[in-house]
DNA sequence: CGGCGCTTTGACCGTAATCAAGACTAGTGG
DNA sequence: CCACTAGTCTTGATTACGGTCAAAGCGCCG
């Protein structure tokens, strides 16, 4: 256990730039600087922003953004998975998006959001005041563009999922969910057709809320996929996909 | 008939600005200048853009953007309704968005889209080359911001609809669809609780593809809503909603 | 051990899909 | 003008997929 943690720390160090003395310390090992919105910022801008950032850790199920409440901060997700949910007055719930590190979290240009955000797993975030980011956007078109790209990515993903919700069978939905997790949980994964082993970031109830199903149906379809040899289930949360290709064919889509 | 058309023309004229001699002629009566992306442009910029614009009319069912094909132009929708669809290899289809005038149509910053766009009704558009708009975005942060706002609006709508697709019953889905059309088809509508009469821009098969249902179920739920007195059906396409409030309660949401 | 949260499995039921027929509308041509 | 056709929509009978209700298994922690 301690050994594997040490190994990960070493990998982080290797990701540091050769010459980065002008990068703020708190930003040096941050993935958001490479693939997130902070990639648009100059060392100087990073320094300005980093003076106002606060890093938080929150446990699974913590509420991060409440629906219809004013938002004061934006965040970058450093680790963990965040679920975006919508709730009906009678309690029915739908997860409308999952966000992984190093995604940007928040609804730009609006005082409050119509969705709420909740930690699906333990989550680490880097937060900063809304006003500071909005000031920086005014001065850096590059940053505005990055934020726009993030919005467009979320829009594409939302529409992909609308097809899943509206037109796929329960079996295809569960396969699509596993495929989504398998290809998003580990940013370093390559799409070659080896076995993939990962931990599900959602419990059954969340999976059901994401797929528009009940927990019983999710459970039944998982055992069906297991019996069909498409997945192996080590424990409730630990899943192995021997062949991504076979899983994809269970999703009933070519381009996904 | 001729009378009502004349009345509408008069309304358009009144919408013109008092001093607009420097606004290009083709843009003067255009709604996109008031509520669409062109609202971000100065008279000079409008002039530049209008030199490259082409206005088109296309009949219902015309394909406007093919999935996975390179896109050369963006468009503003001047009139009519456009449906954005996704298709599965086996023919199952899902409409993932509807766009009304004066919405912007196109996927910024990407060579091709994963969805296709089709005219739901007869449609009029104002198109311009991708490259021209992208050049203008570089010089006008205001325009980039408008485009971002449009993307965010589509994202909010997509997520609203995910809740409908994943968690609502057939009856609630059809009611939600009628509510969406009633509140979007006529930009000049006010939400006061009078009777609203409108023409459905989609045929039953399209409504089914939008709601993740079959045409038979859509038809049955429409007659059920009619028998419940929530709607009146004059003809296949012509619907009256006596009380928007009653329709909303049939959608099972408070905030929509 | 006992209690609690999560998951699985089984039996039964209900909603929406499927299959099938018929009504209505609009367009075409005799 | 009407017959004919094709497309669209409605209605009915039956089926099946996924939901509901219920019970039991499992892992975890006090």
UniProtKB/TrEMBL annotation, chains A, B:
Residues 168-245 form the HTH crp-type domain. Transmembrane segments: none annotated. Coiled coil: none annotated. It comes from the Bacteria. The keyword Transcription regulation applies. GO terms for molecular function: DNA binding; DNA-binding transcription factor activity. GO terms for cellular component: cytosol. Gene3D superfamilies: Jelly Rolls (2.60.120.10), Winged helix-like DNA-binding domain superfamily/Winged helix DNA-binding domain (1.10.10.10). The keyword Transport does not apply. Keywords: DNA-binding, Transcription, Transcription regulation. This is CRP/FNR family transcriptional regulator, anaerobic regulatory protein.
